[in-house]
Amino acid sequence: MVEISSDVIRGYNDTIILSILMKEPSYGYGISRQIKEISDGKYAIKETTLYSAFTRMEKNRYIESFTADEDPKGNGKKRTYYRITDEGRTYYGTKCEEWDVTREVIEKFIAQKEGE
Amino acid sequence: METIKNYLETMFASLPNTAEVRKAKAELLQMMEDKYNELISEGQSENTAVGTVISEFGNLDELAEDLGLSKEVEETRTKESEVPRRLITQDDAMAYLSNNTKKSLFRAIGVMCCIIAVAWTIMLSSINPIGGVCLMFATIAAGVGFIIYSNFVDAEWKFMNTELCRVDMATAAAVKERKRSFEPVRALCVTIGVVLCIICWVPNLFSGNIHVYAPALMFFLIGFGVLLMVYASNVYGGFERLLQLNDIDTVSGTYDMTGKAPVKYINKAAETIVAIYWPVVTCIYLIVSFLTFHWELTWIIWPIAAVLRTVVVINCRADEE
Questions:
Q1: Is residue B319 within 8 Å of B266, Cβ to Cβ?
Q2: ipTM score for this prediction
Q3: B24 in contact with A at a CB cutoff of 8 Å?
Q4: pLDDT of B70-108, one tens digit each?
Q5: A25: contact with B, CB 8 A cutoff
Q6: Are B68 and A59 spatial neighbours (Cβ–Cβ below 8 Å)?
Q7: What confidence tens digit (pLDDT) does each residue in B114-136 have?
Q8: Dihedral over Cα of B94, B99, B103, B106: its sign
Q9: Which of A55, B77, B91, B207 has the most Cβ atoms closer than 10 angstroms to its Cβ?
């Protein structure tokens, strides 16, 4: 099976994380697990990539972090949760439009190759 | 899970010890722990789970860049490649500790000999004064011998004074464990030692027919008390020595401190004052005591010094960030 190269997906890690936070606030591993599920196990984001994205997006105010005393399972562990901000939603919208254009362009070249 | 923790600590070992880095480490550990627990609950074996977690961890260079630490990481790397720190393995560390225990014992016996030497001259003053003096010098010689020998005992570890060394997380944890189990022994030794030194003049109260032996007994009590204190503090010093080998500015420098920031002083002078405080107090105590010979009063210097030290330390310590 062809694996996703991290170079290609790098520009869209933020978009992927934001799309998950659009639904509800979540924590580190929760997000990582959802990414794996939604991508049918084709994309496993690395922990360092995920944490880098958190710090970067927090600095850009796309997300906010807060500490929740208890996680949903109720085992009383303190966890850092992340929630999306309005700036984050706007940014997500822009990135989605950008992707439409990107896909359109790339597909033209891919199709050209197949057509030979 | 221990393997994962150690892996993470090794990855972070050379990063600067800042609040940001500590937070990153804690968050990453949390994520890895969550993943590990889930893999285990899915029925994977411990080894497979550890393997998966570590292989999906990623690399720190990317993280350092986003944390704005690339420069620091680069600096520590160059520093380490220019002056590499010698790694003390866990076996080395344990050998060093048992060696240090031996050394501490010899040194403590040596110091005791030097103290009790005087007792012979007092005990034998009426029976055989010359014999007493001879015995005194013989005991001092033995004591000095013990102290000199104690310095040869750890000859193979002298490189720790001249070379930069480091220990890894697992070794630091093992040393910390030994240090913790030694804690009660140390407390007992110091307590008994102090009590012996305080009650040393008690035999002098009972004159009568033991009056010759009473002052002699005083030196034996002090000698044994000091032996216990010297032994305990030297053994303890060995643990601290190993735990302080790592570069204090990096994450690896925090292994013995469970997340606390190292104590910083306002300037070099303040650091020196705190460091020489107890030796100076000891000198004052001995000088005053020998000049006045009011040993029954001069002990008051110690509690006063202890209270004063708190004041001094508070004034010398720099505020934490």
A1: no
A2: 0.81
A3: yes
A4: 777 777 777 777 777 788 888 888 989 999 999 999 999
A5: no
A6: no
A7: 888 888 888 887 888 888 889 99
A8: positive
A9: A55
